[in-house]
Design brief:
Blueprint: H1 3-16, H2 31-39, E1 46-49, H3 57-63, H4 65-75, E2 78-81, H5 87-95, E3 101-104, H6 106-115, E4 120-125, E5 133-137, E6 158-160, H7 166-180, H8 184-187, E7 193-194, H9 199-209, E8 214-218, H10 219-227, E9 238-241, E10 249-252, H11 256-260, H12 264-273, H13 278-281, E11 289-291, H14 298-306
Parallel strand pairs: 1-2, 6-7, 6-8
Antiparallel strand pairs: 3-10, 4-10, 4-11, 5-8, 5-9
Helix pairs in contact: 1-14, 5-6, 6-14
Length: about 300
């Protein structure tokens, strides 16, 4: 990393501190659903898993089946999976008490916990304390990877992922501002685009196909798509990578202990952090989960406010 990026990284770390994050979502049943269940004699509360749609939602149900079975066995409770249509929906469902444990991105996790007093971040991926975004470009641009921010992209078509994505929008926005002194709308000469469905997958495919020239996305998703043959690194090479920041996290709703009893949240945290089953961990695209706490994400909130995505 050159001296400029080191200073940016140091500035970010001082702003973010040990901010962590994490993004997809795991969830429990709604308070409303619980009330209805309580009105039905013999009905049991159910732990419902969901995920922010940072990839094709059709892939999520299959990936979360192993986690669903693992939690049901280890916690001796009913567990199911439910898709969330978009990032905002995942936050709103948590806020309204419709879900109770969510695999959030850094920004959505901060938004959700701010809306629900007592909500806790309890786990994160092993890579999430040092996450990063890739800027990728279609091969026709002729751009190659550089340690310097690629200012030539200002005249090209550019896309973020979801508007609520940490690695696909928040942090790329922050670094564009740090590098150019301008927000993306002022820096780019063409209108900035967003991927409304499909998350990071959609960004990668849009750039690889040439429908947009440049995009920013999660480094983990890009690497997994290249490894799986979903896209070619030759069609959409990496042209710049951001300094480190924190991202995805698992956040739990305080109503969980009303549903299943005191101590369940701590038990859930232990079950997640102790998991070594690779099939279960595929739900998060991680090799391991580690403990997390709310204080580690305070820097994400500061950055979100700085770039105007939170008040």
């Amino acid at each position: 990393m050159n001296s400029r990026n080191r200073s940016i990284s140091q500035k970010l770390k001082s702003s973010i501190g040990s901010a962590l994050a994490v993004t997809s979502a795991v969830v429990f049943t709604s308070c409303g659903d619980q009330k209805n269940a309580d009105s039905d004699e013999g009905a049991k509360p159910s732990l419902v898993i969901t995920a922010i749609p940072d990839e094709k939602v059709s892939d999520q149900s299959a990936k979360f089946q192993a986690l669903q079975a693992y939690l049901a066995k280890e916690l001796s409770i009913d567990v199911s999976f439910s898709l969330s249509n978009d990032y905002t929906a995942a936050v709103e469902r948590f806020k309204n008490g419709e879900v109770h444990l969510v695999w959030f991105g850094g920004l959505t996790g901060v938004q959700a916990r701010a809306a629900v007093p007592g909500a806790r971040a309890i786990a994160q991926g092993d890579v999430d304390p040092q996450y990063k975004s890739y800027f990728i470009a279609h091969k026709s641009t002729g751009l190659a990877k550089s340690a310097e921010f690629p200012e030539a992209i200002k005249d090209m078509t550019f896309t973020f992922g979801s508007k609520s994505s940490t690695s696909g929008r928040l942090m790329p926005t922050y670094f564009i501002m740090q590098e150019t002194g301008k927000n993306p709308d002022d820096f780019f000469t063409k209108p900035v685009q967003f991927q409304t469905t499909g998350g990071h997958d959609a960004t990668a495919r849009a750039v690889a196909s040439g429908s947009v020239q440049v995009g920013a996305l999660s480094y983990k998703k890009y690497e997994s798509m290249v490894a799986d043959g979903d896209i070619s690194a030759e069609d959409a090479p990496i042209i710049w990578e951001t300094p480190d920041y924190a991202d995805y996290n698992l956040t739990v709703h305080p109503a969980l202990e009303e549903m299943f009893g005191a101590g369940l949240i701590d038990k859930l945290q232990k079950v997640l952090v102790d998991c070594t089953d690779k099939e279960v961990l595929k739900a998060f695209n991680r090799d391991d989960l580690i403990a997390a706490k709310n204080e580690e994400f305070e820097g994400i909130e500061k950055v979100a406010k700085e770039v105007g995505l939170m008040r």
